[in-house]
Amino acid sequence: AMPASTGKSFSRPVFDQTITIHSNHAQRLLDRGFLLVARALYGIDVVLRILGDDEEMDQVEEIVGKLIGELATELRAEHARLAQLREANGIGATPRYTNPRRITVHISSPQLAQYTALIEELDRLMTVMDALWLTGVLTNKQRADGAYQWRTRVLRTGREIIEIERRARASAEKRGKGEELAGVEAPVLAEDVAEEGVEVAGGTGETASDASEVAEAGSPGHSARE
């Protein structure tokens, strides 16, 4: 007899997307928060399907899409502004980074594709910022503040996504769907193919610093670094 279909044996469509992240600031997001957010996005997808409430699914999808979309637009606008500054100063070169990192992400939902692109967008912004810093157009402080501000913005968006997933899960449990939710664990990253060869698939990526950095991004005193 065929085994009953469980969440674990469900055959999901997945794109395996390998991305290269060059700048330290964007890499720090891979270590702190990215895995949590990716899991939350996977959770939202699965939880909402278990609930089977189309209206709620559409609503959550719209909220998450808008959150990510708005930040992506702002990152691109800042990138364009700095690119103009770079051009005005006649800077053609792009810095080479000494330790780029490649990771493979299992894209299991459109929102995860969007969020992954957001990290890449931040990386591109940092690259222009670093070019301006290395050529003396930006001061150390301007670069540090700019990098911190944008990384925190991405972290905060991640924190909101994690919160949305928590609420969706709570709503599912209220409706007595708790058992179906048990063991919903996101297969998000294949592995980290950096030199260290750290495996971040499975349950390893979630550390205390992970959660605290994501949490801190939302706390007031942490964002005001003028």
Describe the biggest sheet?
Answer: 3 strands, antiparallel
Question: What sequence of helices (H) and strands (E) makes up the elements?
Answer: EHHHEHHHEHH
Biggest sheet strand line-up: 1-2-3
State the end-to-end CA separation: 65 Å
Rounded mean pLDDT score? 78
Low-confidence stretches: 2-7, 190-226
Global geometry: elongated
Task: Give the helix level as a range of percent.
Answer: 55-70%
Radius of gyration: 19 Å
DSSP E strands, number: 3
Kindly report the oligomeric state of this protein: single chain
Count of individual helical segments: 8
Structural class: mainly alpha
Strand content: 5-15%
How would you characterize this protein structure?
- The protein is mainly alpha-helical and 226 residues long.
- 62% of the residues lie in helices and 8% in strands.
- The protein contains eight helices and three strands, in the order E-H-H-H-E-H-H-H-E-H-H.
- It has a three-stranded antiparallel sheet with strand order 1-2-3.
- Helix 1 runs antiparallel to helix 4.
- The N terminus and C terminus are likely disordered.
